[in-house]
Amino acid sequence: MGDRVINITNLALLAIIGAITFFPLYYVIVVSFTEPSEFLQKPFVLLPKHWSLASYEYMLSSKSFIRSIGNSGFLATVGTALSLVVTAGIAYALSRKRLRGRKIFMLLILITILFSPGIIPNYMIVRQFGLINSVWALIIPSLASGWNIILMKSFFDSLPVELEESAAIDGSSDIATFFRIILPLSLPSLAAFGLFYAVGYWNQYFNALLYLNDAAKWPIQVMLQNMLLSANNSDLMISSTAAQAPPSTTLQMAAVIIATAPILAIYPFLQKHFAKGGMVGSVKG
């Protein structure tokens, strides 16, 4: 009886916590699909009587909003691909014991984790390289994370050395071994780190405010911030032929759903890779 009471209590508490956690997302979805006229009459809506896509149609008719989604998509795809190549390459090189100065490189990477130069030095470096007002200012400084490099190095350390020895006997070079043998075995690890990098690039906000002066290059997060600050949504640049704008709240909720939908759609396909161990593949004798 005591165990049953504890289990019921735990389930009840978890259900309450889950409902509290899920409610904000539910409210955002409901408000974004609410008929504008109904929302004006009853601002707090839990279950609308009339569903509508007016807010989404209004948002997707904005050229600046569509452009910001394209900018974030470019950052997420190109930035993630480059970050995975750089992270995996550095981690693989550091995992090879024959690399000269390996301990020095590891020390330098650890220093980047423990100490951060700050906003002003980073801005000076970006300006020195002429990346101000360029989307590459959001990619190049964030190409690799010291923590991710160390984690991926640990994964490469767990791979059997016999794999490389067998490839070397067959005449394979280090680069060919890396791309043909090591990376295929690292797909679960790459998928997990790729999701982390993709979320980081998609959510670029503060660096975009620092380095991008042209509104045409803003990512989606900066556009959302301007929408929240602009009560009349003048920054959407809707054409004069568009219908009357829905309430600003429904537009903001629709924009939030559009901004989070790509990551929410990708995450279920990559979640299974998080639970896999660092050892993928084996040597058959």
UniProtKB/TrEMBL annotation:
InterPro entries: MetI-like, MetI-like_sf. Residues 69-270 form the ABC transmembrane type-1 domain. It is a multi-pass membrane protein. It is found in: Cell membrane. SUPFAM superfamilies: MetI-like. Keywords: Cell membrane, Membrane, Transmembrane, Transmembrane helix, Transport. It comes from the Bacteria. It holds the Pfam family BPD_transp_1. Belongs to the binding-protein-dependent transport system permease family. Its main location: membrane. This is Lactose transport system permease protein LacG. The chain crosses the membrane at residues 12-33, 69-92, 104-125, 131-151, 181-202, 251-270. The gene is lacG_1.
